[in-house]
Design goal:
Blueprint (H helix, E strand, L loop, with lengths): L2 H14 L5 H9 L20 E2 L5 E2 L2 H11 L6 E5 L5 H9 L2 E6 L2 H13 L5 E5 L12 E6 L8 H5 L1 E11 L6 E9 L2 E10 L12
Parallel strand pairs: 3-4, 3-6, 4-5, 6-7
Antiparallel strand pairs: 1-2, 7-8, 8-9
The structure holds S-adenosyl-L-homocysteine.
Main location: cytoplasm
EC number: 2.1.1.77
Catalytic activity: [protein]-L-isoaspartate + S-adenosyl-L-methionine = [protein]-L-isoaspartate alpha-methyl ester + S-adenosyl-L-homocysteine
Length: 212
C-alpha cells in the first residue's frame, strides 16, 4: 500500500467511526501520526488502534482522538490546555485548530520528545511542560478549552476552576481502568453542565511528577 492509499484508509476509518467535522479531519490529515510512534510499532501508525509509547504510556486510537477533538469544538482564537502530552500527537492536532496550546505530562522524557517533534514540524504555538496537570496551570488560566487524555475519578477541581465561562472540557472519568465514560463539561454563568459522550479506556491520571 502506498502513502496516498494509507492516508485514504486512515481518513475513511475516522469518518466511519463518526469523525465528520471538516476542520478536525483536515488537521488529522496534515499531522502525520507516523512521526509520533517509534520502533516496532511505527508500521502500525496508520491503523485505528492505540499503540505503546515510551514510559509505559499509550498514544490514543486515532478515531478517539478525532471524536474528542470534535467534542471540544475548538475555535481559532482559543487557548487550549491538554493534560497528558504522551507522544504529542493530540497536541499537534490541537495546534492547527487553536491560537495557543499548552500541554503537560508527568513524564519529563515524554515532554522532551514531544517538544522535539513540535520543533521539527514548525508547530510554534504549542508549549509542553513537565507538570502534574491535575493541579491545572494557574499562570495561564483561564482556558477556553481543556482536554484531559488520562482518566480521573472525577473531573479535577482545579481544572474546572481554570475553565473560562463559555468554555468546554472533555475528560474521561471512571473508577476502574476498564470502564470509563468520556464526559463533556460546559461552563456557563449558572455553573457546569455535564454530558456523557461514550465509553472509553485511558491510562489513569496519576499524582506527582515521574522521575523519567
Ligand atoms: N494525548 C496523548 C496520549 C496520552 S496517554 C497522545 O496524543 O499521545 C496519557 C498521558 O497522561 C501519559 O503520558 C501520562 O504520563 C499522562 N498523565 C497521567 N497523569 C498525569 C498528570 N497528573 N499530569 C500530567 N500528565 C499525566
Amino acid at each position: 500500500m502506498d502513502d496516498a492509499e494509507r492516508k485514504m484508509q486512515f481518513l475513511f476509518a475516522l469518518r466511519s467511526k463518526g469523525v465528520t467535522d471538516a476542520r478536525v479531519l483536515g488537521a488529522m490529515e496534515r499531522i502525520d501520526r507516523g512521526r509520533f510512534v517509534r520502533g516496532i510499532f511505527a508500521e502500525r501508525a496508520y491503523e485505528d488502534m492505540p499503540l505503546p509509547i515510551a514510559c509505559g504510556q499509550t498514544i490514543s486510537q486515532p478515531s478517539v482522538v478525532g471524536l474528542m477533538t470534535q467534542a471540544l469544538d475548538v475555535q481559532p482564537r482559543d487557548k487550549v490546555l491538554e493534560i497528558g502530552t504522551g507522544s504529542g500527537y493530540q497536541a499537534a492536532i490541537l495546534s492547527l485548530l487553536a491560537r495557543r496550546v499548552y500541554t503537560v505530562d508527568r513524564h519529563p522524557r515524554l515532554v522532551r520528545e514531544a517538544r522535539r517533534i513540535f520543533e521539527e514540524m514548525d508547530l510554534f504555538n504549542v508549549t509542553a511542560f513537565a507538570a502534574d496537570g491535575s493541579h491545572g496551570l494557574e499562570d495561564q488560566a483561564p482556558f477556553d478549552r481543556i482536554l484531559v487524555t488520562a482518566a480521573a475519578e472525577d473531573p479535577p477541581g482545579p481544572l474546572l476552576a481554570g475553565l473560562r465561562i463559555g468554555g468546554i472540557m472533555v475528560v474521561p472519568v471512571g473508577q476502574s481502568d476498564r470502564v470509563q465514560s468520556l464526559i463533556k463539561v460546559t461552563r456557563s454563568e449558572r455553573g457546569f453542565d455535564y454530558e456523557e459522550l461514550r465509553s472509553v479506556r485511558f491510562v489513569p491520571l496519576l499524582e506527582g511528577l515521574d522521575k523519567d
